[in-house]
Specification:
Length: 211
C-alpha cells in the first residue's frame, strides 16, 4: 500500500509539472502560473514529507533547521552579494522578508530532500552521498537559472550568471547535505519522481525559451 501511495504521489508531481510547463508556455497564462509558483512548492514539499518513512521529533527539527539555514544563506547572499554574486529576487516566489522570499527556504529543503534521496540510491557511503547530493544540486541549478531569470524568480545585476553562483551553491548545498545526511538516512521513493518532474519542467522550459 505504501508503495502505491508513493507512485500515486509521484504521478501527481509529474502531472503538476506538466501542467506547469503548459501554463508557463502560454503567454495568456504566464502571470497566473507565476503567481501559483509558491503554492506548487508548498504542495510538492507537503506531499513529499507526508510520505516520509518515519516521522519523529528529530526529523521535524532537522527539516526546520535545513529550511531555515537555506533561507538564512539566501538572506546573506542577496543582501551582501558575497555568497552567490549580486542578485535580487522578483515577485514570483511570493512574500519577502529581508529581501528574500520565505519560499526559498521551502525550496532548499525540498531540493536537499530529493537530491539526498537520489544520492542514497547510488551509494551507501555518507561522504559520497553528501558530495553527490551537492553536485546534483548544482546540476539542477544549471537548468533552473535561465528559467528563473525569464519568469522573475530572481535577476542578476551583471550580463550573465556568475561562476560564483555555482561555487556558492555547491558549498551551501554541501553544508546542508552534511547536516541532513548526518541525521537522516531513510529513503522515500516519491522523491525520485519529484526530481524527475522538476528535471522535465526546467529542461523543457529551457528548450521552449530558445525557440
Amino acid at each position: 500500500m505504501k508503495k502505491s501511495k508513493e507512485q500515486i504521489v509521484g504521478w501527481i508531481f509529474i502531472v503538476l509539472h506538466l501542467v506547469g510547463i503548459a501554463g508557463f508556455s502560454i503567454e495568456a497564462t504566464q502571470a497566473l502560473f507565476q503567481w501559483l509558483t509558491p503554492f506548487n512548492l508548498l504542495i510538492s514539499l507537503g506531499l513529499l514529507l507526508w510520505l516520509h518513512p518515519s516521522w519523529n521529533y528529530q526529523f521535524v527539527l532537522l527539516s526546520i533547521i535545513v529550511g531555515l539555514l537555506g533561507y538564512l544563506i539566501e538572506v546573506a547572499g542577496v543582501n551582501t552579494g558575497h555568497i552567490f554574486g549580486d542578485y535580487t529576487y522578483g515577485e514570483t516566489l511570493g512574500f519577502k522578508l529581508w529581501n528574500t522570499p520565505l519560499m526559498i527556504g521551502v525550496n532548499w529543503l525540498m531540493m536537499i530532500y530529493y537530491t539526498s534521496a537520489i544520492a542514497k540510491r547510488i551509494t551507501s557511503a555518507r561522504v559520497f552521498q553528501i558530495v553527490l547530493g551537492a553536485t546534483l544540486m548544482v546540476l539542477m541549478d544549471l537548468l533552473i537559472e535561465p528559467v528563473a531569470i525569464t519568469f522573475d524568480y530572481w535577476t542578476w545585476s551583471g550580463a550573465g550568471i556568475p561562476i560564483q553562483n555555482y561555487i556558492g551553491w555547491f558549498v551551501s548545498a554541501l553544508l546542508l547535505h552534511t547536516v541532513y545526511t548526518s541525521v537522516e538516512n531513510r529513503k522515500n521513493s516519491a522523491a525520485l519522481y519529484l526530481a524527475i518532474a522538476q528535471l522535465i519542467f526546467f529542461a523543457v522550459l529551457n528548450i521552449l525559451r530558445t525557440i
